[in-house]
């Protein structure tokens, strides 16, 4: 099963953890199709650091592909999982690490995924938050060879 039943999002921590395990696994396998399968067709994907909001499964599928191209060895490690008890939402805290393609530069940072689930148990809204300045600083060091 790839969805999280609506009522389980707020009350069943085991179901919530299993859903987030699939989310983390899909990202770490660089599998855009598996990430997209956990999302509703009408997904609203917001990443303020990049200044864009995307829509639909194809957008998230494409983003996973871009990430794998830019950081071929990237991985996410879940640092925390926080369920909202009054609505179907979860916050997933994570640590990212990856090597910028064509360099030896490791990039590491912390972020949070805010996932809002619909009645169908799929992610309808996904907001990814992290310190973009820290990421840029690390990437600038890679460009200057520092």
Describe this structure in words.
- This protein has five helices and six strands; from the N terminus they run H-H-H-E-E-H-E-E-E-E-H.
- The chain is of the alpha+beta class and 146 residues long.
- A hairpin with a 6-residue loop joins strand 4 (89-99) and strand 5 (106-117).
Low-confidence stretches: none
Whole-number total of structural domains: 1
Q: In CATH's first tier, which class applies? A: Alpha Beta
Which value, in Å, is the CA radius of gyration? 15 Å
Task: Provide a short characterization of the protein structure.
With 146 residues, the chain is α+β, with helices and mostly antiparallel strands. It has helices at 6-11, 13-28, 32-37, 57-70, 132-144; strands at 39-47, 52-55, 75-83, 89-99, 106-117, 123-130.
Topology:
Layout: H1 6-11, H2 13-28, H3 32-37, E1 39-47, E2 52-55, H4 57-70, E3 75-83, E4 89-99, E5 106-117, E6 123-130, H5 132-144
Parallel strand pairs: 1-6
Antiparallel strand pairs: 1-2, 3-4, 4-5, 5-6
